[in-house]
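Here is the promised in-class demo. Please do not try to memorize the tokens; focus on the logic of going from shape to residues.
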């Protein structure tokens, strides 16, 4: 019986750390057109790290530095006939530019675009950890404020159960008149409507950051007269 091969894959991060490189396979037929983190099999007497650097050199013609191995691994192969295990590490390019030699396309994907391509099955468990590495975009977060820690934590648990991120923290002192009763905040990437339902349920409120004034709703400027206005007096009649 063949021992399952270890396949190493690289989540190559862009220089600003906000995007990851996805690559589209061209073979075998059943995987062609689907997306993966580039990489390949670890050879005998090779460390996973050395294999990853070698594979990326061969496939993309650039030199990478391996940063961190991500938690977990997934099985490669059809159910019941596992042919290998996939592990993945974050990495950065230290020389050259990634240009596909074996893949027919590569794409830089931000956290919010990760679900826009058809990943090979074994890569999918790495997408959530990757979303965290890439960071949730600032503008996509909304905050709910709760008086009670229990309410905040239970709202956060509901959000996480539904697949959103949720960060609970204690609000800071607001100033001199502030008392001990600081509310709790829950910051999430869930849509505002989802959080709104939870704050209603838990007696909290939404914290909507004040944006710049919206010009589109500014009132039309009032037209000022150029000359003194003539006030028409009622005609009182000239008498006789
Ligand atoms: N490289 C890579 N392979 C993956 C991923 N996900 C996944 O299921 N696989 C599968 C596809 C292949 O069956 C196997 C790795 O094959 P490969 O063709 O990339 O590896 P390799 O360069 O060492 O292949 P070889 O031509 O030397 O045999 O793992 C992934 O994210 N990256």
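The designed amino acids, position by position:
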């Amino acid at each position: 019986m063949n021992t399952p091969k270890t396949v190493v894959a690289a989540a190559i991060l862009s220089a600003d750390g906000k995007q990851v490189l996805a690559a589209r396979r061209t073979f075998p037929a059943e995987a062609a057109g689907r997306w993966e983190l580039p990489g390949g099999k670890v050879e005998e007497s090779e460390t996973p790290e050395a294999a990853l650097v070698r594979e990326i050199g061969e496939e993309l013609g650039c030199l990478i530095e391996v940063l961190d191995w991500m938690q977990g691994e997934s099985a490669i192969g059809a159910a019941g006939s596992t042919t290998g295990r996939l592990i993945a590490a974050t990495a950065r390019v230290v020389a050259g530019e990634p240009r596909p030699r074996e893949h027919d396309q590569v794409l830089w994907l931000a956290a919010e675009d990760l679900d826009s391509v058809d990943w090979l099955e074994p890569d999918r468990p790495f997408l959530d950890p990757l979303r965290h590495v890439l960071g949730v975009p600032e503008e996509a977060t909304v905050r709910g404020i709760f008086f009670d820690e229990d309410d905040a934590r239970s709202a956060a648990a509901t959000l996480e159960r539904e697949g959103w991120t949720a960060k609970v923290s204690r609000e800071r002192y607001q100033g001199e008149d502030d008392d001990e009763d600081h509310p709790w905040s829950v910051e999430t990437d869930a849509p505002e409507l989802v959080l709104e339902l939870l704050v209603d349920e838990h007696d909290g409120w939404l914290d909507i950051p004040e944006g710049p004034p919206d010009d589109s709703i500014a009132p039309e400027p009032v037209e000022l007269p150029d000359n003194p206005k003539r006030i028409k007096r009622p005609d009182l009649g000239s008498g006789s």
